[in-house]
Amino acid sequence: MEEFIFWKDWAKKEKYFYYLLFAFFLTTTFWLAFNLASRAINHTGWDVATTIERLPVATQTVTEGILEFPIEADIMYVTQQFKIGEYRVNTNASLIFVLITTLAFNILITAASFFRTWWYYAVLGMFILALTFFKFDLLFIFGDTKNIFLIASIVLFIGLNVVFNLFYSHVDFLFRFLSFLALSVVLGLVIVKGAYVQNPILYLSNYGLYVPFALSIVFIILIAFDLIFFFLYIITSSKSATGRSNSLNFVLISLLYLGNLALMYCKKTGIVNWDLLYIDEFLLLFVSIIVGVWTYKMRLQATSNMMDFAPYGAIFYLGMAITTIATIAFCVATNNDQLIATLRDAVLYSHLAIGSMFLIYVIFNFSTYINRNLKVYEVVLKINRFPVHLVRVGGLVLATGLLVKGNFKQIYKTEAGYAAGIADVYLEEQNILLAEEFLKESLFHDPITEKSNLAYASLKETNGRYEDAADHYKKIQLNEETEQLYASIAYNYSKVGLAYSAIETLHEGITKFPKSSQLYNNLGVVFTKTHILDSTFHFLNRAEALGGSVEVSKTNMLSFLIKKKLVKELPDYFNENSAYLPLETNKIAISLMRKEAYSPSYIYPAVADTIGKIDRLAYHYNFGMSALTTIDTIFDSFTSNYLKNDSLAIFTNELGLLKAYKKYYSGNRREAFKELFDLQKENSSKAGFYFNTLGLWSLQNNAPLLAADFFNQALDNGNTTSRINQVMAVLTAGQKENGLAMLQELLNSPDETERKLAHIIDSNFKLKTNATDNDRLDYLKTNKTNLTTGEFEAVYDGITDLEIRKQASVLLLAHYINTKNLTKAKFIPLSKDLSKKDENRVNILRLELTRLLADYKNLLTMVDSVALNQEDESQRLFYKAVALEFTGKKEESQKIYKEAIVKLPLHQPLILAYANFLKKYETNEVAYNTLLDAVLLNPYGIEIQKAYCLMALEINLDSYANETLEKIKSLTSKSDFEQFNTTFVNTKKKIESSFNWK
Question: What pTM does this model have?
Answer without folding.
Answer: 0.80
